[in-house]
Design brief:
The structure is a homodimer. By secondary structure, chain A is α+β, with helices and mostly antiparallel strands. In chain A, the strands form 5 sheets. In chain A, strands 6-9-10-22-21-20-17-11 form an 8-stranded mixed beta sheet, with helices on both faces. Chain A has a 5-stranded mixed barrel with strand order 1-2-3-5-4. In chain A, helix 4 crosses helix 6, helix 4 crosses helix 15 and helix 7 packs across helix 12. The first copy, chain A, is globular and about 90 Å long. Chain A folds into 4 domains: about 90 residues, OB fold (Dihydrolipoamide Acetyltransferase, E2P) (Beta Barrel), CATH 2.40.50.140; about 180 residues, Bira Bifunctional Protein, Domain 2 (BirA Bifunctional Protein, domain 2), CATH 3.30.930; about 120 residues, GAD-like domain (Gyrase A, domain 2); about 100 residues, no CATH class. Strand 23 of chain A pairs antiparallel with strand 23 of chain B.
């Protein structure tokens, strides 16, 4: 037996007991007559004491232990004179009587502390050492607890978890597929699922009523900080439901997670907001509601005063930053630089200040009177001490830029707190998006999304006006999940394909088996999928999903630790009937 | 709202309530004045009644409904005069007042009944219809409940579930890898995991102490009835443990499953049996303990009587089938044919009968006296009315054939009951297996398996004698799980590689990242993996794992429903820097 207790559980209740612990040497301090060792395992840290007066040989052994050695120690639990209130075991220490080195360790390439001295690359390469650090360990423990709680909730709601295949068929859902050559079917390939979308709809056709799965999905996309080639979804589908049923069930799941994991109970129902309102008031379809500072349109109020920028603009909008009237030239220049960044794309920034002393001042005083400015502040519901920031131009781009500016101001003013959570349902998305380049309509969510019944009339005459039975769950400005009520009727599905410009053959090739299934009694159904990595990162307070994934890949899709992907053998190529053909 | 209740929950408690149900038309019966429809959903079946006297039009609508139509019906719950005690809703029926067809259905290509009239291929192609059948639905519900209970148990034992990557590195664990070309790393490939073996060991090095995962694994092997290219494991690993800890924890998991799912409590600790005993008494390393009929060696007792077959045999062994002394010539011939099948490989079968009347008779009466036969029965602990079946030849092959013959007799005598469960730990496996073809030793489990400490001395002098700290959980003759305590020390691992004939470079290439990790303080650790598909099939009483998998593949690795694998586009080949090269 390697241990009687873990390093996280001993307290004053165990005083004078003889115990055996095993773990890693976190640090050791040699104070002449005494040597102290912090012994670490997954559960905590316990202090070991070796006394020169009592056992010179043992103390000598202890002094030889290096960082990250794996040891076993037997000894007696004693009350500490110098207690450490920061750790649960801080009241006690172990007077060691027997010591055994289970395994030595070379000096690790970086420190195993909450904040390590290792760079990203080094820590990725030695991920198994990085994972020893408490912040990562806590993240993975959190991830486990969240998955458990999701499953408990779903089970309590009569959902059943059904595993769908990883070796799938290439399906056209926007992103690139990863493919797998089939040895037994030469020249043919499986694809890894981008999501189990069609299979979960088939499960509804099969009568499974309430399905969920915490499942790996795959997209071969160029990677950004918050993207991984493989990621985990909480994938869900229900039959005999309309939008309201889905929102209720998954608002319930979200509440259950917040309550069981973070002890947070939301008193009010989650806010619901139409896509249109989100876009016009926040400049984005995933508003961060931790702070107000809504965007307001002031186009009508600013035109005709001779200021060319406003006069020629399709749209002029503003936000009002409370308490910022004393912003310096330098601060305002920084904001101007911010909105002019290519990824924001505004041409310039207009401001107006309403001083604490009642004075009114703007960057366009040449064109607008104090009375004008006063009106702006009145429109923006601003007061003395506030700052109005104005952008003008094309409606869509300007709203988007204002949305970014709003978030930037939220950051500067500390309004986006990690421990405040503002969940929001965004609803009433457009069904279709027009693409200027290819001159055709695309499904905003996917081609199975149901239109709103009252909008079906415009399907062919004014497709852009048709709203979808789609919904996103947004928390603190990040989309955590999204889904829709599906089309379950063959005729309406064919109409949809027609609007999307799919030929009958194309539709058959891409979605044939789902369309076939719909011939045999498909029930009304709908679903949702949550990004489990993102949700965990939100709960962990981490900005990157890499910090909540045990073995993530880097921006080139490489696993630095395993050195994967890698070459394969000539024999494998032969068996799989493929070969490499590098671009010249 | 599509329904107020499901089709499985209404009873006499709801009499006279107005309810709304939705579901599929299972069958309809038109009795002139009345039309009855069985409405089905995941939860059960409820009888709908339409009465010509009350509503001719509605009754007419009902008569037009075809099998598998999806309908919604509103009506009043009434007590049935003609109750059906076989179903939970059999006491009531619904007098329908309103009917809505939600979706029509073409006539399904086979009947949706407990026993369908559809052939295997057809049912695979229309899997979404096959999945509507109650036996499959019950299997998938069972699978969900089992996964939940596994997770609950593991969570209660402080295990945390950690997701390991699906896009892995090609690792050499015997079977062929499925590979995935990397677009971003042209000419390089990921491999799908055959198991997360090395990663779970890394998690132990990382200090995670107790890891588990219900996880998809992949092997590109030629398929048999109980094999799938992707299958699901309950994968587990623990640190600071020895064999006994693992057996205790996972005996606990198995007991928890039997108790929570099947209401079965095992009174005694699970039987433990050495590999040697399993092989000599049952001819196999996974004995079915639902019945006795142990194999016994009688080599010494039968030699030297002039029967050439016995005299020249390395080994003579027998089983005793109680109550079979009256087996006919025909039955004995059938058994002889059985053992002579190529996959069994015996040359012939010798029998001896001990009649109810005390008479002794054998197929080798020329060589053996009644006294000899009496001795055989005494050795075999047989009595009047029993039959002894004897095989002779090479020890290993004969034992294996006797093992098969024993199972065949178990089947014939109805001793292998579906509702009897006999769990067994097989332990003390040999560490290494000699392969005659390649003239080298192979690891019987895998190269990280720890030898028994007391056998390490023979490591180089007599490798075949070294036993492993390995264990299998066998239930009813099927291996449900297996694992081992791992080597955690670099020197011993290198010794193991040496015995296996790996060069330093080979070892580095194949297991480099694990060996590197062991330099930084690896704890003692070990683990186990269970075949979740097999375990579910056992609990479901199914002989094929296909019946507990939602979307299985056929023997050619094809998904008949999705028609996958399939061709991919020229653009995909270009992006992935590969092309197909078919064998000529």
């Amino acid at each position: 037996m390697f241990r009687t207790h873990t390093c996280g559980e001993l307290s004053l209740k165990s005083i004078e007991q003889t115990v055996t612990l095993s773990g890693w040497v976190q640090r050791s301090r040699d104070l002449g007559g005494m040597t102290f060792i912090d012994l670490r395992d997954r559960y905590g840290i316990t202090q070991l004491v070796f006394n020169m007066d009592q056992n010179v040989a043992l103390c000598g052994e202890a002094r030889k232990l290096g960082r990250e050695y794996v040891i076993q120690a037997r000894g007696v639990v004693k009350e500490r004179s110098n207690k450490n209130p920061k750790i649960p075991t801080g009241d006690i220490e172990i007077f060691v009587e027997e010591l055994r080195v289970l395994n030595k360790s070379e000096v690790p390439p970086f420190t195993i502390e909450d904040v390590s001295d290792g760079g990203d690359e080094l820590r990725m390469k030695y991920r198994y050492l990085d994972l020893r650090r408490a912040p990562l360990r806590r993240n993975l423990e959190l991830r486990h607890r969240m998955a458990q709680e999701v499953r408990n909730y779903m089970d309590s709601q009569k959902f059943i978890e059904i595993e769908t295949p990883v070796l799938m068929k290439s399906t056209p859902e926007g992103a690139r597929d990863f493919v797998v050559p089939s040895r037994m079917n030469p020249g043919q390939f499986y694809a890894l699922p981008q999501s189990p979308q069609q299979l979960k709809q088939l499960l509804m056709v099969a009568g499974y009523d309430r399905y969920f799965q915490i499942v790996k999905c795959f997209r071969d996309e160029d990677l950004r900080a918050d993207r991984q080639p493989e990621f985990t979804q909480i994938d869900c589908e229900m039959a005999f439901v309309d939008r309201e049923d889905i929102l209720q069930i998954f608002e319930g799941m979200t509440r259950h997670l917040f309550k069981s994991i973070k002890g947070i109970e939301f008193k009010e129902p989650f806010t619901r907001m139409s896509f249109q309102e989100a876009m016009s008031s926040y400049g984005v379809d995933k508003p961060d509601l931790r702070f107000g500072m809504k965007i307001k349109e002031i186009t009508g109020a600013v035109k005709g005063k001779g200021f060319q920028v406003f006069d020629s603009a399709e749209y002029v909008g503003a936000i009002c930053a409370a308490g910022c009237s004393e912003y310096s030239r330098k601060e305002l220049d920084a904001l101007t630089d911010f909105v002019k960044k290519p990824q924001i794309g505004a041409k310039g920034l207009v401001y107006a200040k309403y001083g604490q002393d009642g004075s009114l001042k703007s960057s366009v005083d040449k064109f607008f009177t104090s009375e004008d400015l006063k009106n702006w502040f009145s429109t923006m519901e601003g007061a003395q001490g506030d700052l109005i920031l104005i952008l003008a131009g094309d409606r869509k781009k300007t709203l988007s830029a204002l949305g970014e500016l709003r978030l930037e101001m939220g950051n500067r003013l500390g309004l986006r707190k990690d421990d405040v959570f503002k969940p929001l349902w965004v609803i009433d998305f457009p069904l279709l998006e027009w693409d200027e380049e290819t001159k055709r309509w695309y499904a905003m969510h996917h081609p199975f999304t149901s239109p709103m019944d009252e909008d079906v009339a415009y399907f062919e005459s004014d497709p852009g006006r048709v709203r979808a039975k789609a919904y996103d769950l947004v928390i603190n400005g990040t989309e955590m999940g999204g889904g829709s009520i599906r089309i379950f009727n063959k005729e309406r599905q064919q109409l949809m394909f027609k609007v999307l410009g799919f030929s009958a053959e194309e539709a058959e090739m891409k979605f044939g088996f789902l369309m076939n299934a719909f011939r045999f009694g498909a029930p009304p159904h709908g679903g949702i999928a949550f990004g489990f990595d993102r949700l965990t990162a939100l709960f962990a307070g981490e900005s990157s999903i890499r910090d909540v994934i045990a073995f993530p890949k880097n921006n080139m899709g490489r696993d630095m630790m395993m050195d994967s992907p890698s070459e394969i053998s000539e024999e494998q190529f032969k068996e799989l009937s493929i070969r490499v053909e590098l671009k010249k």
